[in-house]
Write a structure and sequence with these properties.
Two copies of one chain form a homodimer. The first copy, chain A, is an alpha+beta fold and 613 residues long. Helices cover 34% and strands 19% of the residues of chain A. Chain A folds into three domains: 391 residues, Alpha/alpha barrel (Glycosyltransferase), CATH 1.50.10; 98 residues, Immunoglobulin-like (Sandwich); 96 residues, no CATH class. In chain A, strands 5, 17, 18, 19, 20, 21, 22, 23, 24 and 25 form a ten-stranded mixed β-sheet that branches. In chain A, a hairpin with a 5-residue loop joins strand 22 and strand 23. In chain A, helix 1 packs antiparallel against helix 3, helix 2 crosses helix 4 and helix 3 runs parallel beside helix 14. The longest helix of chain A is centred in the first third of the chain and has 22 residues. Chain A is globular. The termini of chain A are far apart. The relative contact order of chain A is 0.10. The interface between A and B is large, with 61 and 62 residues. Strand 12 of chain A pairs parallel with strand 21 of chain B.
Chain lengths: 613, 613
């Protein structure tokens, strides 16, 4: 094992998934199902599509040619990363054994100098490092992420050794800055920082920064994306300007997210003002002008990415699942950088909406594309040739434990409300927290604190962005004037074992209006309750679906239905002068019953008789 | 006792206060306090100011001249009406005895022909029925209301006999339509209908209609109001047009309310389309364009009334307490006419805000004028020369039991959520309802039903206008698709003894914006929680009071404080990037601590970074 380095400058640190055990009704069953179906099916798909045998072939253990698309290695790595997270909440000797076997093949496929990419080893061994768009470092980055996760989860370092050897090879190739290089699809940048945080050797940090700084100087001379005929060019690839000069979010959405993850990490580690300003600017550009209500980003299929501000069509929304996951990853890092709940708000918005819409409730079908309305023809599929989204789901869903808490020098920040038992290392002691809650269906959260050997420290609880009003108690005594700090409610006190912080968030149904410049939502409204965005499916609203609307003074009945869609709060929309007119379900749960039309934004009746004062 | 007539045409009937016993934390203690201080102080003031001895003098029991203002009799009647209601929840032999003694004096003051008005009897016996503005019928109406209330409450009919004799005298004077007459201050019209409903003789109804139809034909030739130099003219007195032709609400606010009460009653009793249309039109004019957020009406001091649409200044708002009570009385009747919860919404809005602001928490000081902001110089007083408002409070507060339920042929409508035990006569049987709730501080309401000998009937629960979303249960089972009817949730079922209807109204803090045409509220917001409108007092917000504002993404902490202002939910307004910035209390409770500035509407930060999608 490596000694983790206590990295400089970072004020806030992640509480790793290994210390967080979920006990809730929403995520814990989802994680179990995820292991039973998603992980299982992804392994099977990786086997059936030759993704795993490519490693066996590259190592000479099997005969044959490379199969599939050139970045298929990455899917295997992502599934391993998912298994690693999954084992914390659902230990499973069978999956661990299978994974160990796959890892053996991966390690065996590594070339003597550390190079590891089965496409080039098998198909074009002489063309290594000749095509910037060939995703060698994209695959490599995912290997590193998987290796770190698996090491942390199981204590087994074989994959990590392989990854380190591969990265050391990267340093041989690029470390002396022998050649200019633009990573065709950002990913290695953030993986190198993860490795730096894991191992503490600054050479990884240095290489990450070098990759980042390479962009925007015209080094990728063609600027053409090889993959699937997507619209290319430097902007597509965030290679049109250096990071410090980027102003508006543009180009391929997933690339942008992974890129910004790394830059945000670097900003945090180095305190570089240029990076910080760039990230703040691009965050505003992304969140305020280019994000869907689901936390989804990237409206256009043509470039899998951004177009122009406020271009957020519903029906043709691309909103790749990977991009929503990217929003979680980036906003998590922005929150580590700034300790401001507004980033956790976006993280949560993506999480409960645009991310988990990407997978069926059974865990075995996936959306690549997550539109906000459908004519009834858009459905999840079991796999894709380019299967980044299924394997993104495979690795992301069980990683939820990473995002609940962060720690500062002064105490603990609670970012997400998910019932769980956690052990948090703070000021040399162990603080145990037990969260209980029916979130996101109910606004009541209890956090039981066992401060260990500590006395006074801060507990900072996020006041969710979706929430306007709440009540706060400690041990059933109301707290009159809690201190606010960057959107967190700060309780600085001497904690005693068994202290209970109670948060009662008012969670009414809210009607949300769109920015007036979003053309497709003109005259429309969406409904949200807590962090969950709702949609209307034809199967619940068969009568004249294309003309459904929300009355100006609509009344909403909420109803938790255990038997519906895996347990959801359904919203019945009532006309106050008539009967039920509409039924809404969580957006993430759509397309899990009979096929039909769906819409998040629907017409809203505007009435001059609205009560004003 | 008289037999109450089962009047025709009326679909909905009031459940009288005699059948409703309050048990709640908000009203029941208020009613007790009301008896101990308000009733007591009003009796004392009536004694000290000669109001009671005027009766003794008029009857010859005492010597002396008429004291005070010519309509002072009405205050005594209103206090008796208040005592009558008060005895239901707080039986009190002492007050009953005092009242009986006052009633003896009143009866003794009646002239042989039935005429009863101590001003004219004592000061101008020869000028009876010569000055339309002299409030003879205004006083007479209040006598009739008091008499009916006292008869119902105590079973004692002496005052009712007196009132009937007086009304019969009115019929002698006006019944043959010998002369044209405009009532100077409407009141008798609604009292006559109460008497008709009580006794069943259509002559009262006929006289009421005659008074109503007299208006708007130029019969009140001068059109000048005698009282206190107020701006007069036919419009002031709603005498510019016949009721069927009135379009916009104008003139003196209290006069208008009492007038419309009678017209609405008549519309209900007769089904007259012209009356119904006039009331609907004037209701929209009043509520949508001329009402304050407190339910207060009448912005102008110059005419104690209306000016032009959207003229709703905060600081100079007149909002006479009597006018807010008038809004309750009128909207109660509009609801009886239409059975639509939107009227109960306005009734409740006035009730929890503009009405009870009219009295101090101790119950011994009164606002005549209820502005929405104050420079610190506006305070409640113990009494006024024109003391209509204190005695309006005296009679209104304990009458709350009248407004909770109504009954239809099909069942029961729940208009207000107030913990209480009630016996409701329905379809020849007795239905007992027990409401439990901490309303208006909490949104949870339980209604326990004992259907008596009945099986199936409707229970219709108002879905409050302030509320967007709720959950509904019967015996802890969620009701999926309740039927809505005119804003009421309708449960039609076979009831069994002990059935419990549970309503969970989401009750977040809401920011309310004003109509853009209300100039004084431009750029401002008000906050409301449940039915309660909040205000900011300088004593809670001493730092730079004139520049207080609500941040665009303000977070609210709500906190029920038993020891503050008689027990209120306080709202702490937090800046999400800082600490407490403001503390708000219910508007009705202002000016109960140290004097200072107050404001309901305060500046709201508008921010281009508001999260949109």
């Amino acid at each position: 094992m490596f000694n983790k380095k206590n990295t400089k400058n970072e004020k806030l640190k992640c509480v790793p998934f290994t210390n967080v055990k979920l006990t809730d009704e929403f995520w814990a069953p989802r994680l179990q199902k995820h292991q039973e179906t998603t992980i299982k099916s992804c392994i099977k798909q990786c086997e059936n599509t030759g993704r795993i045998s490519n490693f066996a072939k590259a190592s000479g253990l099997e005969e044959g040619e490379f199969e599939g698309i050139l970045f298929n290695d990455s899917d295997v790595y992502k599934v391993i990363e998912g298994i690693a997270y999954s084992l914390i909440n659902n230990p499973n000797a069978h999956f661990e054994k299978i994974t160990d076997q796959i890892i053996d093949k991966i390690s065996a496929a590594q070339e003597i100098d550390g190079y590891l990419d089965t496409y080039f080893t098998l198909a074009k061994p002489e063309d290594r490092w000749t095509d910037m768009m060939a995703h060698e470092t994209y695959c490599g980055g995912h290997l590193a992420e998987a290796a770190i996760a698996y090491s942390n989860s199981t204590g087994k370092n074989k994959l990590l050794d392989t990854a380190i050897k591969m990265i050391d090879h990267y340093i041989d190739v690029f470390g002396g800055q022998q050649k200019h290089w633009i990573t065709g699809h950002q990913e290695i940048e953030l993986a190198l920082i993860k490795l730096y945080r894991e191992i503490g050797d600054e050479k990884y940090l240095k290489l990450s920064k070098w990759f980042i700084e390479q962009r925007g100087h015209g080094y990728n001379f063609t600027g053409i994306s090889w993959d699937r005929g997507l619209m290319g060019g430097p902007e597509y690839n965030q290679d049109d300007k250096p990071i410090r000069e980027l102003i508006d979010i543009r180009g391929h959405a997933v690339r942008a997210m992974y890129y910004f993850c790394a830059v945000t990490d670097l900003a945090d580690l180095t305190g570089d003002e240029g990076y910080i300003k760039a990230m703040d600017r691009l965050w505003e550009s992304t969140v305020l002008k280019n994000m869907y209500i689901t936390g989804g980003i990237g409206p256009s299929k043509s470039n899998e990415g951004f177009t122009h501000d406020y271009d957020l069509p519903d029906n043709t929304a691309y909103c790749e699942t990977c991009a929503s996951v990217g929003m979680v990853l980036w906003n998590h890092r922005m929150n580590l950088l700034h300790g401001d709940s507004k980033y956790a708000d976006i993280m949560e918005r993506a999480l409960y909406n645009g991310v988990i819409s990407g997978v069926s409730l059974e865990g075995d079908k996936y959306f690549y594309v997550n539109p906000l309305s459908s004519d009834g023809t858009h459905h999840r599929e079991q796999w894709y040739d380019v299967s980044c989204c299924p394997t993104q789901i495979a690795r992301f869903i069980p990683s939820i434990g990473n995002y609940i808490y962060t720690v500062s020098d002064k105490g603990i920040l609670v970012n997400l409300y998910i019932a769980s038992k956690s052990t948090i290392h703070l000021q040399g002691s162990e603080v145990n927290l037990i969260q209980t809650s029916r979130y996101p269906w109910e606004g009541l959260v209890n956090i039981k604190v066992d401060p260990g050997t500590l006395n006074e420290f801060e507990m900072k609880m996020r006041f969710p962005g979706w929430c306007r009003s709440m009540q706060l108690f400690v041990n059933d005594l109301i707290i009159e004037n809690p201190v606010f700090e960057k959107g967190y409610i700060k309780l600085l006190r001497e904690w005693r074992k068994g202290d209970i912080v109670t948060l009662k968030f008012d969670m009414p149904v809210e009607k949300i209006n769109s920015h007036p410049r979003v053309i497709s939502n003109k005259g429309k409204t969406a409904i949200q309750r807590g962090p969950v965005v709702y949609c209307f499916e034809e199967t619940d609203n068969k009568d004249d679906f294309e003309n459904i609307y929300i009355p100006y003074n609509a009344k909403f009945f909420t109803e938790y239905k255990e038997q519906v869609l895996g347990g959801v709060t359904v919203i019945n929309v009532m006309h106050p002068e008539g009967n039920l007119i509409l039924k809404a379900i969580p957006y993430y749960a759509w397309d899990n019953r009979e096929p039909g039309r769906m819409s998040v934004w629907i017409k809203e009746e505007r009435n001059h008789n609205t009560l004003y004062f």
